[in-house]
Amino acid sequence: MEPSREQIEKAVLYHGHYGPFLMLGLKAILYARSVIGNITRCDIYTVCRKPYLCTLDGIKVVSDCEINVFDCEGLQLIFYNGEEKLKMNLKPGYLSRYLDKPWNELEKLADEVLEKDVTSLFDIIFLPTSMGG
Does the pLDDT value for residue 127 go beyond 90? Predict the structure, then answer.
């Protein structure tokens, strides 16, 4: 499921600007919802600074799920619906592509995120329910 124009506008208004990490969060939560249903919790494993944390706002703008953040390298999202879990790891090439870019390039990179299929951006793994959560 791709974000609607209204969801994108709401995310930008909530976050303050249009950028790739915001759109990564928005695309990820919408995809997770489309495959496992109502999301009750999201664990985010990433570097605890901007722009990595901009991903949170993309999730928060369309979900009131519990969000836990853990400091580590990369960007990994684990979505829970109470019974199923979905792990999404941002592919390393995209992480370096979207990091430390000049302000004037952020909109173009956000557009790029929106144009790409979520499966080309993330490695996606369905986790067994016995893995906690």
Answer: no
CATH number of the domain that residue 63 is part of: 3.30.1330.130
Domain count, the chain: 1
Is residue 96 assigned to a domain? yes
Instruction: Return the HEC string of the chain.
Output: CCCCHHHHHHHHHHHCCCCHHHHHHHHHHHHHHHHHCCCCEEEEEECCCCCCCHHHHHHHCCCCCEEEEEECCCEEEEEECCCCEEEEEECHHHHHHHCCCCHHHHHHHHHHHHHCCHHHHEEEEEECHHHCC
34-86 pLDDT tens trace: 999 999 999 999 999 999 999 999 999 999 999 999 999 999 999 999 889 99
